[in-house]
Amino acid sequence: MTPAVTPTNRELDSKYLWHANTQHRLLVMRPPLEIASAQGCYVFDAKGQRYLDGMAGLFCVNVGYGRREIVDAVAAQMDELPYCPLTQSHGPAAQLAGRMADLLPNGLNRAFFTNSGSEAVETAIKIARQGARRLHPRENRYKIIARYRGYHGFTMGGLAASGQTARRTAFEPLPQGFLHVAPPDPYRCTFCSEKMACSLACADEIERVIRMEGAETVAAVIAEPIIGSGGAFPAPDGYLERLRAICDRYGVLLILDEVITGFGRTGKLFAFEHSGIQPDIVTFAKGLTSGYLPLGATVVSQRLFASFLGEDDSTKFVQISTFGGHPCSCAAALANLQILTQERLWENAAAVGTYLLEQLRGIRSRWIGEVRGLGLLIGIELVEDDSKTPLPDSRMARVMRDCRQAGLLIGRNVESAPGLANVLLLSPPLILSYEQADTIVETLSKVLSGL
Ligand SMILES: Cc1ncc(COP(=O)(O)O)c(C=O)c1O
User: Fold this and answer.
1) pLDDT attached to residue 363
2) DSSP states of 318-360 as a string?
3) What pLDDT, on the 0 to 100 scale, is given for residue 112?
4) What is the pLDDT of residue 2?
5) How far, in Å, is the centroid of ligand 1 from the Cα of 116?
6) Residues 256-274 as b or e (16 or more Cβ within 10 Å = b)
7) Is the shortest distance between the CB of 297 and ligand 1 below 6 Å?
8) Ligand 1 close to Cβ of residue 184 (< 6 A)
9) For ligand 1, is residue 261 a contact (CB within 6 Å)?
10) Contact at 8 Å (CB) between 94 and 278?
11) Helix axes of 239-250 and 201-213: crossing angle, nearest 10 degrees
């Protein structure tokens, strides 16, 4: 009898696994990196090769890998109570909701837990539609205004809110009632890139759309404070304030999607703290548990929550999730937030992020069109020439591959606008050191000079 041969992970993967966002035909030539372990800011492949994780997984491992406190908290929770739905109650969810209310500004204090960022956004959209009808009972407010290049998740509602055509087309028709306007993008702004200063015309466009559509039909505006995976576009000064003022003028709810930016990434605990405003609804996932377990949250204002209160079931929020707010995920989040706040990691993100941004801006390369970002969320837009022709796909792929070969994992925007898949993305763990920032700069500098 021939001895049984145990298939390798690579063989099992290539035969049975369906990867995210991947053309499987090409995997034969370019198999995915098999990550076997991780520590701090580094991940290690199956052969023991070390990589600096410039993306913190997918924008999420904020406190870094290998945090024993989170592992222990989850193990203890598994032992104590491995499951309980939120039609009942359990300590970790109640404590986490309370902790988030402490950390968020006054009034943003009611959390609905989900399993992912997409579900957090889906929940926000549903709450906004039902809530807007409660707050304006004689109107039918259901439209959601979002921005091109923004990303809000893979579910049908999240996709409908997302302004990235390449991610949407195959699944259309998407839910109705979603409108898009230009994102803030000073480098390619159709309103004011030729002018001396930003006029916030892209924010004013939202007011024009509300008026043209009729405010009595508009439920909410949804925005990432910094567009993340679409290409790292920080909101210009005054942009969020203008959005808040427009929403208030027309009784429209403001949803801020902090799935990437929440919990320290941009140099503040929440990205909206860079402005003087606060949203009516805010969505979280990724950094909430630093990716140790899946968890999303939709947090709403007291005023909005109160609009769902009534004498019978007719005004309740009709949504149930088997795993949303799982006790082990909440335990992971509580331990994660303990680390984050004890070590004040947003301060490191601000300091090292500013340094990294400056050093990247100092790289002399004909391919760099713009380096932009805030904290440890940075985009590097690569172009062919002064007319800002985007670097073609093959060259972008080469930069990614060469960085990987040099031991650095970086990200890249998907085609967040037709023809514009030319932004390298950096979103490392918030514990990144200055030396590790230097490694990123040296590696990118070398790779770009060899292009
Ligand atoms: C801003 C934003 N919202 C929502 C999502 C969806 O989150 P998830 O992948 O956890 O479903 C993402 C994912 O990258 C995101 O960046």
Assistant:
1) 98
2) ----SSTT-HHHHHHHHHHHHHHHHTTHHHHHHHHHHHHHHHH
3) 98
4) 66
5) 7
6) bbbbbbbbbbbbbbbbbbb
7) no
8) no
9) no
10) no
11) 20
Nearest residue by C-alpha to atom 3 in ligand 1: 152
Q: Which of 61, 62, 116, 118 to mutate to test the pocket of ligand 1 (most atoms within 8 A of CB)?
A: 118
Query: What tokens were used for 80?
Result: 């104590």
Name the helix (H) or strand (E) containing 166.
helix 165-168
Q: Is 228 in the pocket of ligand 1 (CB under 6 A)?
A: yes
Low-confidence ranges of the chain (pLDDT < 50): none
> Using CB atoms within 10 A of its CB, is residue 386 exposed (0-12), middle (13-18) or buried (19+)?
exposed
pLDDT in the model for residue 190: 83
Residue recorded with tokens 């520590």: 39
Q: Could you tell me if 317 and 308 are in contact, meaning their C-beta atoms sit under 8 angstroms apart?
A: yes
Q: Given this model, what pLDDT does residue 191 score?
A: 87
Structure token digits, residue 113: 């837990």
Instruction: Using the Cα atoms of residue 159, residue 20, residue 292 and residue 263 in order, give the sign of their dihedral.
Output: negative
What is the pLDDT, as a whole number, of residue 1? 64
Measured in Å, residue 58 CA sits from the centre of ligand 1 at: 9
Phi–psi pair at 26, nearest 5 degrees: -85, -10
Whether the CB of 224 sits within 6 Å of ligand 1? yes
What distance in Å separates the CA atoms of residue 295 and residue 328, rounded to the nearest whole number?
10
Counting ligand 1 atoms within 8 A of each CB, the residue from 286, 323, 414 with the most, and so the one to mutate, is 286
Vertex 299: Cα angle to 135 and 150 (nearest 5): 90
Burial annotation 64-88 (CB, 10 A radius, 16+ → b, else e): bbebeebeebbeebeeeeeebebee
- Check residue 29 and give its pLDDT: 84
Looking at residue 6, what is its pLDDT? Answer: 86
